What we know:
It is a single chain. The protein has two helices and no strands. The longest helix has 37 residues, at 30-66. The protein has one domain (2-66). By secondary structure, the protein is an all-alpha fold.
Amino acid sequence: MAEKEKKGGQAKTWFEGLRTEFRKIIWPDQKTLVKQTVAVVAITAVLGVLIAVFDAAILEGINLLVK
Length: 67
């Protein structure tokens, strides 16, 4: 029985620590959040296009070698 109480106490302490850490977070304002989101989406799109182009070029090169 003492082990269950000990485990419950550990969980409570862990959640209290988690709450304390969340209070330390400085959340961005909406303007900053929108700018950062747009930047992430734009960079992801550009990298996706670059990877697709490189993939197509490599595939064409392999097809030329195989035929």
